[in-house]
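Dear colleague,

As promised, here are the two records you asked about, laid out in our usual form so they can be pasted straight into your sheet.

NAME FIELD: protein one
SEQUENCE, THEN STRUCTURE:
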Amino acid sequence: MNSTEVRTDTGRIAVNYSHEGRVATVLIDRPRKLNALSLELLDDLYTELRAIEHSDAQVVLLRTAGEKAFCVGADITQFAHFTPAQMWKRWIAEGHRVFNFLAGLRQPTIAVVDGIAVGGGLELALACDLRIGADTARLGLPETSLGTIPGWGGTERLTDTIGTSRAKELIFTRRQLDADTALSWGLLNAVSDRDGLDSATDQFVDRILEGAPAAVQVSKQLVDAAAAGAPSAVLEALGSGFTAATHDFAVGVTAFQNKTPATFTDS
């Protein structure tokens, strides 16, 4: 297993590669501050995500340290001293830069939500493609109790995920959803007890790795494009043409015809 890590006084980001480099696990490690996100931590996260984008990873897991909180969002002690101009130019802009990059990774991303995920922590999880939660997870957006709003993509991504009315309910009332309710609303894709969380995550990873990498990644881009209003008839034709030219397409067709498992090589 290979690993890289970036350390700062405000937490650290550690990245481990497993499954012969096909799975990158990103760890946000600041448990004493409930994994609150500072500007320094966001910048380190961005650096590591850029490296992952150009790696051989086919799946990206986002985890955080400790059992109490997945992430409580923004480091309030840091941004409380910002002027309105600094909030505009630095704080909000930095969060969008990092979360948009995470959302735009070609690889499928999975947030493993153990503990509370509130404010920017929920927005961080929403920037991932899938979310798997421990049964102790609690999710919400409490920003209006601070006199502010969800500012790192929450109003958009939450609405895309659970719909307008429910997004308004969470934001207006600051309600924290338990894991089962979050699952029923579509905010989580799966729920497991804490002891089984790694196993539940591995099941998703294994199923994704069974698919042809290029086909999985192009499919992700097509779904995201469709959600933004792009015409599927045009993009699916282009995506199908591209994937049909890959070696893995020939492997998949041959395996189907021979009724044997396909072994893809990402080529």
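NAME FIELD: protein two
SEQUENCE, THEN STRUCTURE:
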Amino acid sequence: MSAETWQLVVDAERFSVVAHAAGAYHLTWETGPNPGYGFSIATNDRSPLSRERLEEEARGFLRQVDAETGHIE
């Protein structure tokens, strides 16, 4: 399976989403202060995540980011 990439906008923040394999994703925070910074998520049973679930995960990531450093502390 080749990696599929698309854009996700959450609370005015833009993420590039790469689906590496069934149920495995990497989200890069494109509008964040640190180039290339983001997170990965995967399901145990390789089931795909819905767009809504990926949005929830991105919101959770953004809530954890320190406003001064732009990183999760």
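A couple of things worth noting about protein two: Residues 4-64 form one domain. The first strand starts at residue 4 and ends at 10.

Best,
R.
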